[in-house]
From TrEMBL:
<feature type="transmembrane region" description="Helical">
    <location>
        <begin position="27"/>
        <end position="46"/>
    </location>
</feature>
<protein>
    <recommendedName>
        <fullName>DUF4307 domain-containing protein</fullName>
    </recommendedName>
</protein>
<dbReference type="Pfam" id="PF14155">
    <property type="entry name" value="DUF4307"/>
</dbReference>
<keyword id="KW-1133">Transmembrane helix</keyword>
<keyword id="KW-0812">Transmembrane</keyword>
<keyword id="KW-0472">Membrane</keyword>
<dbReference type="InterPro" id="IPR025443">
    <property type="entry name" value="DUF4307"/>
</dbReference>
Length: 149
């Protein structure tokens, strides 16, 4: 009897494991699970994007060597309190001033078309600014503030 006979190996180590295969029900279950996960992900992306405020720079005015104003449109949900960071830049695009502007919750009829309102932010600068832009906007959690116009 040789030492590599199949019967001797089977007796010593047991039967080799059979490769498991998914049947039609297994594939159907995986397909349903993948579809559900995809639908949940899409719903999460759509609702997260809809809640985020958006802004558009409209213009700026250099008032003096120490002050600049920035005009911007803000689109948000009426009940949200939103803070926007406004930066003043010099001719080398270095930040020479920074301000945060909080826009409070307003009645829906006070907002323009699509929930858009126009705001002006005043920014103090360390030296002459050549432009002022909105850097970012975010929704505050549970904050109560007054409207800035």
């Amino acid at each position: 009897m040789s030492t590599d006979s199949p019967a001797l190996l089977r007796d010593r180590y047991g039967r080799p494991a059979r490769a498991r295969r998914l049947g039609p029900r297994g594939w159907l279950g995986l397909l349903v699970l993948a579809t559900l996960l995809t639908a949940v992900f899409i719903a999460w992306v759509v609702t997260a994007r809809g809640a985020a405020p958006t802004f558009k720079d409209v213009g700026f005015q250099v008032v003096s060597e120490a002050r600049v104003t920035a005009d911007f449109d803000l689109t948000k949900r009426p009940g949200d309190v939103v803070t926007c960071a406004v930066s003043a830049l010099n001719k080398e695009y270095a930040v020479v001033g920074w301000a945060e502007v909080t826009v409070g919750a307003v009645a829906e009829e006070q907002l323009g078309q699509g929930g858009t309102s126009t705001h002006r932010a005043s920014v103090r600068t360390t030296n002459l600014a050549t432009t002022a832009v909105v850097d970012s906007c975010w929704v505050e959690d549970g904050a109560a503030a007054t409207d800035v116009s």
